[in-house]
Amino acid sequence: MDKQALKNILYGSLYELALDKKYYYHSKFDTKYSHFTPEGEKAVVEILTIWVDRLLKEEDSSLDKRAKDIVLKSLKDNENE
Q1: Residue 13 to residues 29, 48, 73, 76, 77, Cα–Cα distance (Å)
Q2: How confident is the model at residue 3, as a pLDDT?
Q3: Could you list the mean pLDDT of each consecutive 10-residue stretch along the chain, which spans 81 residues?
Q4: Residues 35, 36, 38, 44: is their CA dihedral positive or negative?
Q5: Among the listed residues 36, 56, 49, 37, the one whose alpha carbon sits nearest the alpha carbon of residue 10
Q6: Where are the alpha helices (DSSP H) in the chain?
Q7: What's residue 81's pLDDT?
Q8: Which of 11, 21, 55, 62 has its CA 20 to 30 A from that of 36?
Q9: Residues 37, 13, 49, CA angle at the centre, nearest 5°?
């Protein structure tokens, strides 16, 4: 899964929570009255915990791939010399 997909998942997850009154109270009067409910706060922490773990795994995978590509390119360049 790439970074853009992870961003879309986070955005979609938070948006869906914000639409559900069980998780988020939205005040049309003033934003200072809008807030996550206790259930919403718990859900946000759970979502972020899973999302951050996946993001870090994706970054490690991406770094590993780039490192391997650099080594392979270096080996090819040395072979051609």
Answers
A1: 25, 10, 40, 44, 46
A2: 85
A3: 89 96 94 94 96 92 88 83 72
A4: negative
A5: 49
A6: 3-19, 38-80
A7: 72
A8: 55
A9: 80
Give me the pLDDT at residue 75, please.
Answer: 82
DSSP assigned state of 8: H
Q: Per the structure block, which two tokens stand in for 51?
A: 């999302």
CB 50 within 8 A of CB 14: no
Taking CA atoms, 17 is separated from 1, 5, 13, 47, 71, in Å, by 22, 18, 6, 10, 44
What count of residues does the chain have?
Answer: 81
Q: What separation, in Å, do the N-terminal and C-terminal C-alpha atoms of the chain show?
A: 37
Q: What amino acid occupies position 52? A: V
- The CA distances from residue 60 to 2, 4, 67, 73, in Å, are 12, 16, 10, 20
